[in-house]
Each structure stands twice: as C-alpha cells, then as structure tokens.
Amino acid sequence: MTIKKGVSGWVADIQPGGRGGKRYRKTFNTQAEAKHWEAWLKTNVVQNPAWQPEKKDTRRMLELAKLWYDNHAKELRAGENTYSRVKLALEAMGNPIASQFKETTFTEYRAKRLEAGIALNTVNREHSYLRAMVNELIALKIWKGANPLEGIKQLKIQENELRYLQEDEIKRLLAQLARSSNRHALTVSKICLATGARWSEAEHLRNTQIMHGKVQFARTKTNKARAVPLAKDLVDEITGHERPDPRSPRLFEYCLGAFREAIEKASIELPKGQMTHVLRHTFASHFMINGGNIIVLQRILGHVNLTTTMRYAHLAPAHLEEAKRLNPLANLSLFS
C-alpha cells in the first residue's frame, strides 16, 4: 500500500486484501485526503469482508492436483495412474494459475491433442479426470467457485462393431492355447469365456476368490464385487493348477503374450482394441443368443448402467420380433 506524490496530485495505490485481492487506485489533491480515504477503505474491508471481492487463487493447477491426490485420489484403486495422467495434461496446458483455468484452457488443449492424432476416447477420459478432480476440490473446499469444465460436452464417439467369436473360432482358439508353452493361458481364457470376466480380473485371480463353486471378482473396474457360478470341471482345472509362486495367493502367471500368439495362430482377425476383450464380448453375445436375460447379464458383467449391457440386446432371439408382426406390410388387409 503506497501513497505517493504524482504529477496531478497524491496517488493512493492500495490492495487491502493483500496479494491476489482487488487493487484500488485514486488521486487526491492533498496527502491528508489520500490517507483519510485509505483508512476508510481499510475499515470497510475489515467490517464487511463481503465488500472486498474474494482473492484470486494464485496457486498453480499442479499444486491443486497434488492436494486432490493427497486428500482423495490416492485412496482410489486407479488413483496413482489417474494422477499421472492429470499431471501430464496440466503440464501440456502450461500449468495455468487456478484463477485463469477456464473452459478455453481445456478446449484449446483438446483441439491440439486431436490435431496430433490422439484418440477421441483418450481426450474424453482426460476431460472426465480433470472435471472429477475439480469437483472433488470443490467438495473439499479447496476450489472456490464453479467448475469450468462442467459445461463442456464430451466428444461423441462412433461405436465400433462388437466382435465376438463363433463356435468354430472358439474351438480353434482353445486348441492353440492348449498347445501353448504357457501353463495358464488356456485356463484364464476359459474363465473369461465362462463368466464374462475382463482379462485382468481372471489373470489376477487369487485362491480365496474361488469358493463353493463360484468365482468372486473384487476390486473391479466399477468397484463392484460380483460372483459367478462355475462348472465343476472348470473349478477343478483352476484349483488343480500349480501356482507361479507358492508363497503368493495368485493362481496364474502373466499370459497375455501367449493369448495374442494363439489368436494369430488360430487365424482370428479382431478389431483394434478388442484383443482380450473379445472373450468378454463372446460370453455376453452367446448368453443373449441362447436366450439369456438382459438384466441377469448386467449383473454378471457388473455394468453400472443397463445402457452399456443393451449393446447385446439385439442378439436375443425374440429381440424386436414385433417389428415383423406389427409393421404395415404385415397388415395390408387393414388398409384395403
């Protein structure tokens, strides 16, 4: 706070709220008037804090990201990985000051990412991570004001065809896996085909997860535990395996490479990004083709939202059968 003699009079340059607060500047004819105004201004700020605009947050986004991680994200299953992605994104944006982190900060960053050939899914995930981080900072009373990312819509992604294996392809794949030098690739694949499990869920199974003829999946992608019955011969195959390390509860060694090799040798072509996930799609597709219930399938797969499971509904034998019976061509007699 300063009062100085200027060309046109005494200039009071005051920032009563301190660094980051609103700055006031006014010129007076005399030094006494300037001091009187300074005292009046300070009194108003002290007696009525609402009169003084809230300080701008001068912290950098990476500092806030660290607070978010320490106070929340480190307890999440994928917290460390998410924090790493958030940091990379904020660094690419130039680590802006929090008060200057606006909608355009992210949308300009997103446009550059897309121009560089980054997938839509990736930039949508980055948007979700950052938006969730700011929402949590608001809940923790660390972030003041609205979330600048809340009003930004995610980019629409064209759904790819969900590839699933036909019976002859399943047989060819299992035959190749049976010839693999990896002891566990065949059993892990069978678990995925029999339960709709994700590859990582099956590959990381522990002996305590197989009980009473069921396999229980815990610490899943959706953080929801689920249990699925198994045929007795598959239970015997799982429990009969020699563990990679007798001191560890893990049942299987890493076997993704063996699975990739078996897919290639079985001459099975898959869309990009559906290597092991084809087993989960195959379970769900055959479940519906064989007359399964869509609600039951949702529970088995552990989907939070039924909309996700509905991708398989069209495979049900009676799906939209009414279209054949109720369309106008089927009832031309009504119009004659």
What's the layout of helices and strands?
Blueprint: E1 2-5, E2 10-14, E3 24-28, H1 31-47, H2 61-71, H3 79-92, H4 103-115, H5 120-139, H6 167-178, H7 185-195, H8 199-203, E4 210-211, E5 214-217, E6 226-229, H9 232-240, H10 256-265, H11 277-289, H12 294-301, H13 306-309, H14 322-326
Antiparallel strand pairs: 1-2, 2-3, 4-5, 5-6
Unreliable stretches (pLDDT < 50, length at least 5) are none
Strand ordering within the main sheet: 1-2-3
**General shape:** elongated
Q: How is the biggest beta sheet arranged? A: 3 strands, antiparallel
Query: Could you give the order of the helices and strands?
Result: EEEHHHHHHHHEEEHHHHHH
Short description:
The protein is mainly alpha-helical. The chain has helices at 31-47, 61-71, 79-92, 103-115, 120-139, 167-178, 185-195, 199-203, 232-240, 256-265, 277-289, 294-301, 306-309, 322-326; strands at 2-5, 10-14, 24-28, 210-211, 214-217, 226-229.
